[in-house]
Input
Amino acid sequence: MGNGMHGSTFGGNPVVAAGASYVLDTVTDPAFLEDVRRKGELIRARVQAMPHVKEVRGRGMMIGVVLEDGVAAKDVANACLKNGLLILTAKTLLRFLPPLTISDAEVTGGLIILETTLKEDI
Output
């Protein structure tokens, strides 16, 4: 690259550096990390008890769900979207990647939508 071929309007300015510093302080706080672990365990336990769920795996709140044979992750994700929950897929898995700052009420609301969706004919 030569002069003027690459630039960044926002890179390296004091506001961005302060924001990055705050994020690093937050995500390295043991209490914050414990809350992430707790929410991840809550999600995994609740999802494992839902219909059509064969296996739940992951770490923290990065979670993959293996569904029973004949239940397509893409179909479940599309049905969840229609019911108000955005959920990802990874080939044959449902994939959860909620923000680490998600509230307990938001977790509960999403799990209710997922369970309701899994009880429907998909």
User: Anything to note?
Assistant: The first strand starts at residue 53 and ends at 59.
